[in-house]
């Protein structure tokens, strides 16, 4: 069983979360997960994305810039 070791917190505007999740579903080779720290409303929400694979993590970091 793999351990999810790579995490990043990001702010996402209302209505944009599905775009990030779709990217992960399409591009990640390993397991990934998302934790909603604070849902988006009139202000962006706070979300934690976790990855088991370092390459998935690094690619996500570069992509979201």
Rg over C-alpha atoms, rounded to the nearest angstrom: 12 Å
List the strand order in the largest sheet: 1-3-2
Distance from N terminus to C terminus (CA atoms, Å) equals 31 Å
- Please report the number of helical segments: 2
Mean pLDDT: 94
Order of secondary-structure elements: EHEEH
Q: Can you describe what's shown?
A:
With 65 residues, this protein is of the alpha+beta class. It has one domain. The protein has two helices and three strands, in the order βαββα. A three-stranded antiparallel beta sheet has the order 1-3-2. The chain is globular and about 35 Å long. The N and C termini lie far apart (31 Å).
Summarize the helices and strands and which ones pair or pack.
Blueprint: E1 6-12, H1 17-27, E2 32-38, E3 45-51, H2 54-64
Q: What's a concise summary of this model?
A:
By secondary structure, this protein is an alpha+beta fold. It is 34% helix and 32% strand. The protein has helices at 17-27, 54-64, and strands spanning 6-12, 32-38, 45-51.
Descriptors:
three-stranded antiparallel β-sheet; alpha+beta; single chain; 65 residues; 3 strands; 2 helices
């Amino acid at each position: 069983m793999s351990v999810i070791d790579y995490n990043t917190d990001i702010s996402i505007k209302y209505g944009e979360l599905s775009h990030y999740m779709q990217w992960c579903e399409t591009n990640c080779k390993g397991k990934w997960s998302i934790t909603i720290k604070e849902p988006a409303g009139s202000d962006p929400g706070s979300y934690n994305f976790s990855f088991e694979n370092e390459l998935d993590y690094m690619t996500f970091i570069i992509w979201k810039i």
